[in-house]
Amino acid sequence: MQATKTLKEREKELQALLATCEGKAQLEALADYYYASGGRQRPPHTSLVTYLIVHERERGLILG
């Protein structure tokens, strides 16, 4: 993700990826990357989309 996006835009992107097996694998890899780069571990029962959005919001990549 390069440019700052709104919460709605990013949420739609992530949900569209989550709809396919390949997309879900990409999101899992992104979550692993965020965790490895110093992010918090994904809490149990937290959706993948929520985890990614929280991480990206904390880093100023998402507005709103």
Word description of this protein:
By secondary structure, the chain is mainly α. The protein has one domain (5-63). 61% of the residues lie in helices and 6% in strands. It has a two-stranded parallel sheet. The chain starts with a strand and ends with a strand. The relative contact order is 0.23. The mean pLDDT is 92.
Helix content: 55-70%
Would you list the SSEs in sequence order as H and E?
A: EHHHE
Q: What fraction of residues sit in β-strands? A: 5-15%
Number of domains: 1
Counting helices, strands and paired strands, the structural category is mainly alpha
Number of strands: 2
**Molecular shape:** globular
Uncertain spans, ≥5 residues at pLDDT below 50? none
Give the biggest sheet: 2 strands, parallel
Helices, strands, pairings?
Layout: E1 5-6, H1 7-18, H2 21-36, H3 48-58, E2 62-63
Parallel strand pairs: 1-2
Helix pairs in contact: 1-2, 2-3
What's a quick, concise take on this entry?
With 64 residues, this protein is mainly alpha-helical. It is built from three helices and two strands; from the N terminus they run βαααβ.
What structural keywords apply?
61% helix, 64 residues, mainly alpha, two-stranded parallel sheet, single chain
